Amino acid sequence: MQKQTITTDNEDVLAFSMVAVAAALADTSRVKILCALMDGRAWTATELSAVADVASSTASAHLARLVQSRLISCLSQGRHRYYRLAGGDIAQLIETMMGVSWWRVAAPEPSTPADMRYARTCYDHLAGEVAVQIYDAMRDAQWITADGAALTDTGRRHLTELGIEPDAGTRRKHCCACLDWSERRFHLGGYIGAAFFQHGEAQDWLVRTPGYRMVTITPKGRMMLNRHFKLAL
Q1: At what angle do helices 190-202 and 153-162 cross, to 10 degrees?
Q2: How far is the C-alpha of 81 from the C-alpha of 99, rounded, in Å?
């Protein structure tokens, strides 16, 4: 009886926690703030109030709620305070919600800019059409397992040849299939997704658009991605 009571208590705690997260997300302004933070940068309260189109005092209340719910974190730098997503798991949650929400719209006409659907940031990794093609190529070439949940020995070898350390000590999940809301398919998240994006930036394959989520694939990047993944960018 005691074991059953403990199990029930744990289930109740989990249920209440899920309700708390859902309640924190159940506001249009807070969702706009979270979507803005998907570019991986830290934003000020003033910038986020403009994104959410609310007064500064209202934005402060929303930010406090999101911090309390551990969806975002607050960083103090001198007199300034910056806000960012609490981690990659939160980014994956937001991206998945975008995909699930988009599916509920019948035959939608794309209103998102084409360049953002083509390549953009998903927190700290690449998303969009190009990212989905790379994920499919990695899976087909057996760099990752069929479900995208783990790196294979073949993948480790190829990533090492690219100059990416595949087994760096990290508590973060190495690989995960992250649902791409615009393509409604998967792109690569986790540590490997982030490491691949950082490598692409360092090698001048990818260039972020300052202040936005859009990413430009450079001529060098198109050449290298075509070479390594047999794409046709």
Answers
A1: 20
A2: 31
How far apart, in whole angstroms, are the C-alpha atoms of residue 210 and residue 178?
Answer: 24
* Dist. CA 9–CA 12, nearest whole Å: 5
Highest mean pLDDT, choosing among 38-42, 103-107, 185-189: 185-189
Residues 6+ apart with CB under 8 A from 215: 119, 120, 121, 126, 128, 206, 207, 208, 209
Lookup: tokens for 75: 């960083």
Residue 197 pLDDT grade (very low, low, confident, very high; cuts 50, 70, 90): very high
Cα 133 to Cα 136, 150, 185, 210, distances in angstroms: 5, 18, 10, 24
Residues 6+ apart with CB under 8 A from 186: 132, 135, 148, 177, 178, 179, 180
pLDDT of amino acid 5: 52
Q: Which long-range contacts (CB under 8 A, 24 or more apart) does 141-147 make?
A: 141/229, 144/175, 144/188, 144/192, 145/175, 147/177
Question: For residue 107, what pLDDT is reported?
Answer: 46
Are 94 and 34 in contact, with CB atoms under 8 Å apart?
yes
The phi, psi pair for 185, rounded to 5°, reads -135, -170
Whether pTM > 0.85 for this model: the answer is: no
CA 21, 26, 32, 35 torsion-angle sign: positive
pLDDT band at 118 (very low <50, low <70, confident <90, very high): very high
